[in-house]
Automatic annotation (TrEMBL):
Entry protein name: Tetratricopeptide repeat protein 12
Domain of life: Eukaryota
GO biological process: axonemal dynein complex assembly; sperm axoneme assembly
SMART domains: TPR (SM00028)
Keyword Transmembrane carried by entry: no
Start and stop residues of the TPR repeats: 124-157
Cellular component annotations (GO), alphabetically ordered: centrosome; cytoplasm
Keywords: TPR repeat
Upper lineage: Eukaryota, Metazoa, Ecdysozoa, Arthropoda, Hexapoda
InterPro entries tied to this protein: TPR-like_helical_dom_sf (IPR011990), TPR_rpt (IPR019734), TTC12 (IPR043195)
């Protein structure tokens, strides 16, 4: 059978079209995910905004994979989320996506974000150092202020949430401990400190059922820390310093 007959086979053409459709669907799915993140970031809802920011940072740590053999054409009138990346569309009647322009803009944006993240991390590290020193001096209000500002700079560091949770325990702000422990566990599901501080908060609030449940979980997951767990969860514990 000749090569011409093979390539003109309708079944092969349908298969190729299916591949292109799949590529386009994947492409639009990614755009949809980014669009959702943008909406959450601008929603005004603090929880949604912080979660979206953490996820967006994870996106930026990944890599964009291109298939140079695939050439996608936009046939429908779809909303473009990045006019710079698609500027070639204004000069191209076919509506063909300029992948080089797209990748160049994505690369520039990634570089800008990477630099911004580096600066924010340096600020957060400085604030964490100040918070640690204040905590050790017993200046818990100042330590809390520093941790608040550090988390404003970097929202995906589980240790910062744990440190702020412990500071709130020292200040008697037990209701505020749970949110930080939840965030720490979202970022690091194996966090020992997040579970320990959550148990302590339930203990201080005299929510016995939840306290016993958390304590049991701690002992099952971290038997190597049994002495530390017993020490920290003593009712009269008031000198614990994890920093």
């Amino acid at each position: 059978m000749s090569h011409k007959k093979i390539t003109s086979n309708p079944a092969l053409k349908d298969h190729k079209q299916m591949e292109l459709n799949e590529e386009w669907n994947n492409f639009m799915k990614r755009i949809g995910e980014v669009s959702t993140l943008v909406k959450d970031l601008a929603s005004g809802d603090k929880v949604k905004s912080e979660a979206a920011k953490a996820i967006a940072d994870q996106y930026l740590d990944g890599k964009v994979i291109l298939d140079e053999d695939v050439k996608m054409t936009i046939k429908d009138n779809r909303t473009l989320i990045n006019q710079k990346a698609f500027k070639s569309l204004e000069k191209n009647d076919t509506g063909e996506v300029d992948k080089d322009a797209w990748m160049a803009e994505v690369s520039k944006d990634a570089e800008r974000r990477a630099l911004d993240r580096k600066i924010r991390k340096e600020k957060a590290d400085t604030l964490k150092t100040q918070a640690t020193k204040a905590f050790r001096r017993g200046e818990y209000d100042r330590a809390l202020s520093c941790y608040n500002r550090a988390i404003e700079q970097v929202k995906d560091n589980s240790m910062l949430y744990c440190d702020r949770a412990l500071t709130n325990i020292k200040l008697g702000n037990f209701d505020k401990v749970f949110s930080d422990c939840e965030w720490a566990l979202r970022l690091n599901e194996n966090s020992f400190k997040a579970r320990l501080y959550r148990a302590k908060a339930y203990q201080e609030l005299e929510e016995d059922d939840k306290f016993e449940e958390c304590k049991k979980e701690l002992k099952e997951l971290f038997p190597q820390h049994d002495d530390l767990i017993n020490y920290f969860l003593r009712k009269d514990m008031n000198e614990y310093d994890e920093n």
